[in-house]
Every structure is written in structure tokens, then in C-alpha cells.
Amino acid sequence: MKPLGPIPEGFVAIDGELAIAGRKASDLVAEAGRTPLFVYARERLDARVAALRAAMPDRLAIHYAVKANPFAPLLAHMAGLVDGFDVASGGELALVEAAGIDPAKVSFAGPGKRDAELELAIAKGVTLNLESVREAERALEIAGKIGVTPRLAIRVNPDFDLKGSGMKMGGGAKPFGIDADKVPALARRLVDAGADWRGFHIFAGSQALDAAAIIETQAQTLALAARLAEEAGVTVPKCNLGGGFGIPYFPGDKPLDLAAVGNALAERFADLPAVLRDTAFCIELGRFLVGESGVYLTRVIDRKQSHGEIFLVTDGGLHHQLAASGNFGTVVRRNYPSAIATRFDAPVEEEASVVGCLCTPLDRLAEKGGFPRAEEGDLVAVFCAGAYGASASPVHFLGQGPAAEVLI
Ligand SMILES: *Cc1c(COP(=O)(O)O)cnc(C)c1O
């Protein structure tokens, strides 16, 4: 038997079934009218942001990285919880606007911004996190053409990366950000060109569960921002410290020690170098805010045996849950947390693999896990489905199409 990842705290059974925010899985599916279904719970989003705010210094603003989950009702709910939004495309900017979010609270990072995206963002007063020197020049040119003062920040490619990070996005040659040695001259250029200079964005990695690693990275980030500002002779109105806060997905993963990170940051803030004393700080988080709010529910279509192994074949799969299938940036496939939702409080009775309905061996949601005996019609729950699920999976593969989504 292979272990399953840890189910996030707070999920209980009602009448033997998994309940999400007090609602039974089968009732939620009946209401949605179909499976597969992503369920996101407002109360879990609220609790997560409240816990984060309680742990972090008041001075630290919290931004939501839209790419983790751009579902419109979820975005609208997040608008009441966080201080800002980070988008990575014109498409995400449109979603954020449709959710009624003020573009002045939005920053736009990401390589390969098209002219039309730059123009739209500048016209709306979005802060551009510039990813290259050439992009900076294009932004200045476009701003001049439309007669708007652009809000410009520099995304720095730091010379360090977040240790234990699931995905490395800083350190060495990268398509993201501008190498630190080129930053001071560019910062001066932006100020001299009359841009509304917004400061630095320094993102060093993602999905870290080790508080010590995050603490070290934040210290390095502050030191780098101070050094670059001093070299450039510019102020730092704002500094986006990146994010990287992870959530437990796999057997043995432990939740991040938020209090340790918050306390260390409070100490840093109490002892800032002069050039950062008036700076507004933020972090930008995706999965940490929304990942554990979501559950993916899929129905068992077939129960079969092959060479003595049991397969629960579902109507879902990697076309909605690429990450849970192990095909989204992981080297070794490990099981996400999952359960038989309709037998949530039943004991483990057998070893079974939960697979999707796609005709590819990559399509597994749980491999050789321990489950109660499930039959046709049972619902399977995959947890930690609130981030990088619906919008980060190849939804049209094999003609399957999207899952239903609901925010409760
Ligand atoms: C992807 C990304 C994030 C969000 O990462 P999470 O691991 O979901 O918190 C934040 N900032 C940038 C620049 C990103 O590319």
C-alpha cells in the first residue's frame, strides 16, 4: 500500500459522508447537477487569511496570486479578504476587473507581456512588474504614446533561491525578472523618464514548508532590495517580498510554521535599513491562500480488477487535476490526499488505485491507496484542489471538457 497525503484539518463526516462547510458531498453534487465538481469553501478561505494576518506583522500587505485559482466567485470573495492581486496575463487582468477589483490594487508580472497587454495595464493604472530591460522600454514608449504616467516596478531575478522550494523561480539564468546587476541603472532610467516608480518585486520560489528557509529568503530579499535601492539612489515605495508559503500535499509533509515566519519578519521590520524605512511591504500567495479550500469530487464509474489490483475508474482525471496525477512539475509521483467521500468515516478495507477516465496511463488520482471498499456510484474526494486544479489542467484533452465549480 502507498500512503496518501494528509487530509487538511477540519473535514468531518456527516451521516458517514464527507462534509464541506457543513454540506454533504452528495448534496453538493446533486445541487451542481453533475460530477466532476470542484467545491471551494468560503469559510476555509476566511479562516486561512485570518490566520495569516494574525501571524504576520500588520505592516505586511497580503496579495493574492490569481494564477492559483481564477474562478470568478472565488476572486470576488478574495477581494474582501486581501489587499491586492497579482496577475500574470491580460486575461487574468480582465477576470480581476470583472470581479470588481480596483486595478490600482493590481500588479502584473510575467514574461512575454504583449504590447496590447502593456497598454491596457498602463491605461488602467495597474503596476507593471517589469521582466526585462526591453519590456521596460516598451512600457515607457507605450505610456508616452497614450499619455499616461506608467506605474512601474522592477521584478528582480535574485541571486539566491528559496530552499526546499517546489519550483525554483530565482537564482541563476531565468526567464523571470531582471538580473540584479542590471537593476540599479534601470531603476534610475525609470525615475528619470518620469514613471511612477513603484519599487521592487522579488520572488524566489514556491511551495516551501520549511519556515527557516522562508525566513532566510525574506532576509536575503530585504537585503537585496536595500542594496539595489542604495546603488540606484532611489527610494523604494513598495517592495513585494514574493511568497513561497506551501501547503502539505504529500505523506510526511507538515504545515508551515506561520508564527515563526511572522515573528522573524516582525524583527526584520523593526530593524530596517534607512532606505526601506518608509517602504510598503507585501507578499503574494496563491496556493497557501486557496489550495486547502478546495475539494475535487468525482464519481466511480467502474470498479475493476486487473492482475489482482483494484482500479476505481472515475469520471474525473488529470484533465482537471494534472497536479494530483503527478504531472505538474513533480519528479516522483506521490499521492495527494484523497478519500471515498461517500464512506468518509469507514475504515480502510482494501488497496485500490483511483484512476481517471482518460485513455493514458498518466491519469491516476491515487495509486495503491488504502480505502474503504468503494462501488460504482461512490464519490471520491481529492483534497488540496483549490489551487492549480481546474485552470491548470489540460481540460480539452480527450474531449472531456471542464468540471463544474462552486463556491459555498
Ligand atoms: C506562481 C506565482 C505566485 C504564486 O505561487 P504560489 O506557490 O501559488 O503561492 C506568486 N508570485 C509569482 C510571481 C508567481 O509566478
TrEMBL record:
UniProt keyword terms in alphabetical order: Pyridoxal phosphate
> Which cofactor does this sequence's record say it needs?
pyridoxal 5'-phosphate
InterPro entries, per database record? Ala_racemase/Decarboxylase_C (IPR009006), DCO2ase_PEP1 (IPR017530), De-COase2_N (IPR022644), Orn/DAP/Arg_de-COase (IPR000183), Orn_de-COase (IPR002433), PLP-binding_barrel (IPR029066)
**Molecular function in Gene Ontology:** diaminopimelate decarboxylase activity
Q: Which residues form the active site?
A: 359
Instruction: Name all Orn/DAP/Arg decarboxylase 2 N-terminal domain ranges.
Output: 44-290
The protein's name is Pyridoxal-dependent decarboxylase, exosortase A system-associated
The biological process GO terms on file are:
lysine biosynthetic process via diaminopimelate; polyamine biosynthetic process
